């Protein structure tokens, strides 16, 4: 099974999308690091974040030699308890509901009390896990098992640093 975690960093009128492909949740080793720059991104629109970020993720994913088994995104899959679509759900639909998506959010979304809270390391602050195409409790367990002693798993922190130009 191959996992692909992704993040996007915005600067003026362009974005840097980064992704890490890996096959072992408990390792900090990656198979591939991928980065692309996307010009002329959509402006930020409250409640419609997917319009800005989805095209950046699709270009990144389409640059891979083959599709992974699971996507992990720094976002919510669903925005509320009624399953209003968030970035993760739109990504799942784009790839024809064939590749499960795990959303890992660092901040709570008050309309979504159905996310699964995961506490990692010694942190008193949780991560908020949502998913589609995979049971949410299974997705939460996978994020819990990921490598690292801190709140944010090693490879999720690494992908964030890559897209920000810190790696």
Short description:
It contains 4 helices and 7 strands; from the N terminus they run βββαβαβββαα. The chain is of the alpha/beta class.
Characterise the protein shown here:
The chain is α/β, with parallel strands linked by helices. It has a single domain, classed as archaeoglobus fulgidus dsm 4304 fold, CATH 3.30.2170. It contains 4 helices and 7 strands. It has helices at 49-62, 87-94, 136-145, 154-163, and strands at 3-11, 14-22, 32-39, 70-73, 101-105, 116-118, 127-132. Strands 3-2-1-4-5-7-6 form a 7-stranded mixed beta sheet, sandwiched between helices. Helix 1 packs across helix 2 (87-94). The radius of gyration is 15 Å and the shape is globular. The two termini are 26 Å apart.
Task: Record the SSE blueprint.
Layout: E1 3-11, E2 14-22, E3 32-39, H1 49-62, E4 70-73, H2 87-94, E5 101-105, E6 116-118, E7 127-132, H3 136-145, H4 154-163
Parallel strand pairs: 1-4, 4-5
Antiparallel strand pairs: 1-2, 2-3, 5-7, 6-7
Q: Biggest β-sheet, characterized?
A: 7 strands, mixed
Q: Based on the structure given, which CATH architecture is correct? A: 2-Layer Sandwich
Q: Structural class of the helices, strands and pairings?
A: alpha/beta
CATH topology: archaeoglobus fulgidus dsm 4304 fold
CATH top level class name: Alpha Beta
Q: What ranges have pLDDT less than 50 throughout 5 or more consecutive residues?
A: none
Amount of helix: 25-40%
* Order of strands in the sheet with most strands: 3-2-1-4-5-7-6
* Euclidean distance between termini CA atoms: 26 Å
Please tell me the overall pLDDT. Answer: 91
The rounded Rg comes to: 15 Å
User: Given the structure, what is the number of helices?
Assistant: 4
Count of separate structural domains: 1
């Amino acid at each position: 099974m191959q996992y692909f975690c992704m993040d996007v960093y915005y600067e003026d009128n362009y974005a840097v999308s980064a992704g890490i492909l890996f096959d072992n949740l408990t390792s900090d080793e990656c198979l591939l690091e991928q980065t692309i720059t996307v010009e002329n991104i959509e402006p930020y629109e409250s409640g419609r974040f997917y319009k800005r970020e989805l095209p950046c993720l699709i270009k990144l994913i389409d640059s891979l030699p083959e599709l992974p088994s699971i996507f992990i995104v720094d976002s919510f899959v669903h925005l509320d308890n009624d399953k209003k679509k968030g970035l993760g759900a739109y990504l799942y639909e784009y790839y024809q509901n064939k590749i499960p998506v795990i959303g890992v959010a660092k901040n709570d979304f008050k309309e979504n009390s159905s996310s699964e809270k995961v506490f990692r390391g010694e942190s008193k602050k949780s991560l908020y896990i949502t998913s589609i195409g995979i049971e949410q409790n299974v997705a939460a367990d996978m994020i819990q098992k990921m490598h690292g002693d801190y709140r944010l798993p090693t490879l999720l922190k690494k992908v964030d640093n890559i897209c920000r130009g810190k790696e």
